[in-house]
């Protein structure tokens, strides 16, 4: 057996929603990483003290418990995985993987047991269901009754709102109410935010971009309280995924971004990111509302009781110590202007795109964070409105597409090199060659690849140049346009005697005066007009010319149409085409070539037969034209034909034709009339 065991498509239940991810068992720890949020559960092997194998709705599941009281449940295993996981646990964790049966009787009467962060409802010592107490948002008591309300998850189609437990009165201990005891056990582990005690510190009137407004931020040991003029938000530190500290492009402001899951709610609006904007010049002296001993014991040197510095540094430092998360800052990326971000537009708003070491983040409306792990490919596209910018498209593995538009093309080289260094899949690698034709600053590492996009752009450019030749010549004449000299240009172009006529009309003016007038005028450079290129006229098709040969598919379709009709009676014309397309795609390349050759031969034979018929019909027409008077025969012709027939009788005997004398006389009279008419 190897040192590690890895499983894909393992699911974790989060407030009624199944999130898939990857689970890895190693000798040192157990690591689970969610594919949706990227959150990592790291369980040290030394803390494992419980492992149960259970039958669940998604196949089989495993329940792990630690000495610190945390419980982790993962589902999606197969029945065959039990043996290798059990052997791995015995060999490396010294923990036995036990099988635990679930109660499926459907009874609603049993025993409620509190074990760490779970409320387990058992029937005959078998678990019927378990409730994570961290999902409880409120706990209310009544007469012999306890009501639990739960946090809602927007990703679920159906959510559990509340559960009511009937608690019978206890006969043994009258001093303690069983209902109150049950409620206290729930509230001790529930995620119920209660502002008890004083805040560790308070930041006044901080500018918040999302949600918009100015808020007082009160830092409590377990949650963050945003107090504004209209809304209040309480954010538990357990819902904070990531912290970002991003410099603004103007180098005078800073963004502090807090990623939340689940998001905070304002009506029907969900805010997955909390974005604060600070000025670098704003300083603060901060004093924590704790003793120095408590600060040292709780934060282990990360914070001190008295601190001073920039406001954004103080907020980020306190949040990092309380949330126990690393702060993500931009990496080594630098844009064309030297900034660590790129100005672009997403949807209808303009913002800043920050390339990070492990992803991209866009601020601020709406904020978007994309990890490299969830990116399927990226694409560089030409801008839709102008050629001075381009679009950067990101497609995720879930099928979502994000388009960041209106990026200055000077940023292209830096962004391409960054994406290439991170080994992301680029759809159109040849696009950089197309941009290099316009901007020499872009370095190119893909000269040996064919760029279909560039070839298409060149073809479109040639068409535009041919269509705009006339506009260019007009534009050149407009640059040197002078109303006082326009008539002279027309005269010089169309009238060879224009100067002579002018001199004859002004007879008193001498050549010297005209020379002075020419000197007084500004020197003018007359550009020779370019000869307009004749536009290419569309060639008219010759009706009698040869037609383009039919494709192999059309030849096959013509020969197979009747067979398709017979196999599918009552099929429509459009359905015949669809059916034929499916049949043609199923044919292999060799079968297509064989069918193409045989059908070409058949078409040639049929074409030869048609040509032969045409020639025969054309020859018959000519014979009819030449022999249009076959009914008329002269007497000499009849006699000569009779003599030739008598000569041929030596070989084959034939009866001599009898000529009706009445017909002969009519023929003679007709011939005489024709000759006299000539």
TrEMBL record:
Q: Where in the cell is it found?
A: Nucleus, Nucleolus; Nucleus; Chromosome
- Biased composition, class Acidic residues, residue ranges: 468-495
Region annotation Disordered: where it falls in the sequence: 459-556, 584-665
Pfam hit, one: SSRP1_C
UniProt keywords, alphabetically: Chromosome, DNA damage, DNA repair, DNA replication, DNA-binding, Nucleus, Transcription, Transcription regulation
Query: In which residue ranges does the UniProt entry place its DNA-binding region annotation?
Result: 546-593
Keyword field contains rRNA-binding: no
- Gene Ontology molecular function: DNA binding; histone binding; nucleosome binding
Basic and acidic residues composition bias: residue spans? 584-611, 618-638
Q: Where is the HMG box domain?
A: 546-593
Q: Which coarse location class applies to the principal site listed for this UniProt protein?
A: nucleus
One GO CC term, this protein: nucleolus
- Alphabetical list of SUPFAM superfamilies matching this protein: HMG-box, PH domain-like
What's an example Gene Ontology biological process for this entry?
DNA repair
Which InterPro entries does UniProt cross-reference here? HMG_box_dom, HMG_box_dom_sf, PH-like_dom_sf, RTT106/SPT16-like_middle_dom, RTT106/SSRP1_HistChap/FACT, SSRP1-like_PH1, SSRP1/POB3, SSRP1/POB3_N
**Protein task:** Component of the FACT complex, a general chromatin factor that acts to reorganize nucleosomes. The FACT complex is involved in multiple processes that require DNA as a template such as mRNA elongation, DNA replication and DNA repair. During transcription elongation the FACT complex acts as a histone chaperone that both destabilizes and restores nucleosomal structure.
Q: Which protein family is it in?
A: Belongs to the SSRP1 family.
User: What name does UniProt use for this protein?
Assistant: FACT complex subunit SSRP1
Task: Name the lineage.
Answer: Eukaryota, Metazoa, Chordata, Craniata, Vertebrata
């Amino acid at each position: 057996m190897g040192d590690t065991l890895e499983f894909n498509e393992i699911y974790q239940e989060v407030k009624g929603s199944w999130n898939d991810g990857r689970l890895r068992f190693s000798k040192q720890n157990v690591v689970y990483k969610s594919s949706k949020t990227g959150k990592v559960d790291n369980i040290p092997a030394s803390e494992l003290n419980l492992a149960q194998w259970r039958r669940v709705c998604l196949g089989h599941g495993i329940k792990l418990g630690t000495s610190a009281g945390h419980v982790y449940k993962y589902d999606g295993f197969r029945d065959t995985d039990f043996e290798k996981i059990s052997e791995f646990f015995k060999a490396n964790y010294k923990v036995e993987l036990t099988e635990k049966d679930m109660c499926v009787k459907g009874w609603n009467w049993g025993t409620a047991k509190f074990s760490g962060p779970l409320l387990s409802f058992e029937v005959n010592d078998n678990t019927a269901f378990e409730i994570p107490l961290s999902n409880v948002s409120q706990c209310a008591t009544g007469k012999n009754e306890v009501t639990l309300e739960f946090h809602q998850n927007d990703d679920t189609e159906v959510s559990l709102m509340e559960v009511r437990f009937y608690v019978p009165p206890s006969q043994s201990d009258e001093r303690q109410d069983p209902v109150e005891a049950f409620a206290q056990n729930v509230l001790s582990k529930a995620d119920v935010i209660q502002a008890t005690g004083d805040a560790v510190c308070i930041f006044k009137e901080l500018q918040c971009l999302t949600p918009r407004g100015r808020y007082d931020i009160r830092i409590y040991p377990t949650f963050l309280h945003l107090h504004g003029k209209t809304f209040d938000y309480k954010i538990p530190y357990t819902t904070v995924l990531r912290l970002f500290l991003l410099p603004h492009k103007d180098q005078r402001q800073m963004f502090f971004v807090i990623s939340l899951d689940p998001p905070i709610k304002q009506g029907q609006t969900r805010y997955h990111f909390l974005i604060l904007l600070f000025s670098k010049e704003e300083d603060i002296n901060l004093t924590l509302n704790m003793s120095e001993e408590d600060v040292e014991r709780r934060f282990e040197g990360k914070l001190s009781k008295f601190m001073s510095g920039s406001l954004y540094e103080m907020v980020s430092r306190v949040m990092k110590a309380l949330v126990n998360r690393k702060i993500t800052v931009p990496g080594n990326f630098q844009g064309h202007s030297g900034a660590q971000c790129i100005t672009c537009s997403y949807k209808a708003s303009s913002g800043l795109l920050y390339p990070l070491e492990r992803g991209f983040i866009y601020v601020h409306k709406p904020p978007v964070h994309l990890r490299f792990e969830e990116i399927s490919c990226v694409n560089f596209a030409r801008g839709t409105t102008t050629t001075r910018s381009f679009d950067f498209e990101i497609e995720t593995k879930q099928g979502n597409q994000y388009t960041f538009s209106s990026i200055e093309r000077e940023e292209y080289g830096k962004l391409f090199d960054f994406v290439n260094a991170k080994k992301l899949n680029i759809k159109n690698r040849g696009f950089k060659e197309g941009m290099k034709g316009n901007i020499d600053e872009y370095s190119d590492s893909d000269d040996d690849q064919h760029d279909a996009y560039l070839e298409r752009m060149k073809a479109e450019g040639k068409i535009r140049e041919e269509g705009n030749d006339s506009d260019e010549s007009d534009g050149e004449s407009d640059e040197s346009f002078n109303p006082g000299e326009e008539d002279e240009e027309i005269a010089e172009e169309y009238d060879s005697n224009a100067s002579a006529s002018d001199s004859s009309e002004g007879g008193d003016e001498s050549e010297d005066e005209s020379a002075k007038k020419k000197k007084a005028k500004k020197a003018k450079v007359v550009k020779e007009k370019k000869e307009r290129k004749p536009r290419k006229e569309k060639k008219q098709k010759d009706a009698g010319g040869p037609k383009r040969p039919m494709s192999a598919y059309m030849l096959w379709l013509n020969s197979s149409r009747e067979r398709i009709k017979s196999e599918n009676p009552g099929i429509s014309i459009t359905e015949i085409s669809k059916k034929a397309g499916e049949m043609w795609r199923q044919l292999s390349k060799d079968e297509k070539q064989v069918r193409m050759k045989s059908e070409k031969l058949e078409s040639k034979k049929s074409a030869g037969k048609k040509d032969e018929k045409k020639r025969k019909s054309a020859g018959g027409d000519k014979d009819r034209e030449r022999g249009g008077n076959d009914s008329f025969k002269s007497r000499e012709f009849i006699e000569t034909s009779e003599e030739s027939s008598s000569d041929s009788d030596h070989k084959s005997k034939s009866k001599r034709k009898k000529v009706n004398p009445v017909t002969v006389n009519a023929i003679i009279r007709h011939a005489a009339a024709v000759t006299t008419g000539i």
